[in-house]
Amino acid sequence: MPARENRHEEPVIRDKRKIDPETGQVRDTSATQQVAPAEAPPEPPDGELAAQLAERTSDLQRLQAEYTNYRRRVERDRVAVREQAVAGALAELLPVLDDIGRARDHGELTGGFAKVAESLEAAVTKLGLSSFGQKGDPFDPMVHEALMHSYSPEVTEPTAIEVLQPGYRMGDRVLRPARVAVAEPTEAVPADAAPASNDDDEN
């Protein structure tokens, strides 16, 4: 009985010989050598899978939003640096433009100098520079600098009656305020306000 148990167990557990010692035949070992396939990890429940998917989607959306905001900040900073550099260069040219304006007013802007002046003015205009400040403009302390002050019955509000030096801006940025002479309306004397000394003089 023990011998029969050993014969039964040897081919299955211990005996790995390819030739059967009793029959001399080649054993069919394919069944015993088959490797069990790796078990796939258990799939998470539907609720957990949906939660994981929502979390990954949220992470991707957050990364995309952060990258978009980063690109916008970089572009905004790049534009601001460029505008600052251009504004600084234009501010240095304002005295030259003042000289050109004075020469034009005195009829001295002629010949080759006139062509150079026109080319310079065209170049700064292309960069966004524009002048402002006209006689008769309402006085605005945000864009005007009052160098002279007076009263006039011809105005109804503080008004620039003379432009002493034009102002310049680049876009919405004021590079230099317009320097003007300002007149305010003359205060009207009430018609029924008679001098207090009239009654005393009659008496």
Descriptive account of the structure:
The chain is an alpha+beta fold and 203 residues long. Among the domains are: 72 residues, no CATH class; 62 residues, Head domain of nucleotide exchange factor GrpE (Nucleotide Exchange Factor Grpe, Chain A, domain 2), CATH 2.30.22.10. It has 5 helices and 6 strands. The strands form 2 sheets. Strands 1-4-5 form a 3-stranded antiparallel beta sheet. It has a 3-stranded mixed beta sheet with strand order 2-6-3, with no helix packed on it. The longest helix is centred in the middle third of the chain and has 60 residues. It is elongated and about 135 Å long. It starts with a helix and ends with a helix.
Give Rg in angstroms: 48 Å
Low-confidence stretches: 5-9, 193-203
Secondary structure: helix percent: 40-55%
- Helical run tally: 5
Average pLDDT metric: 81
Strand order of the largest sheet: 1-4-5
The topology string of helices and strands comes to HHHHEEEEEEH
Shape descriptor reads elongated
The fraction of residues assigned to DSSP E strands is 15-25%
Distance between the termini: 164 Å
β-strand number: 6
Structural class by secondary-structure content:
alpha+beta
Largest sheet: 3 strands, antiparallel
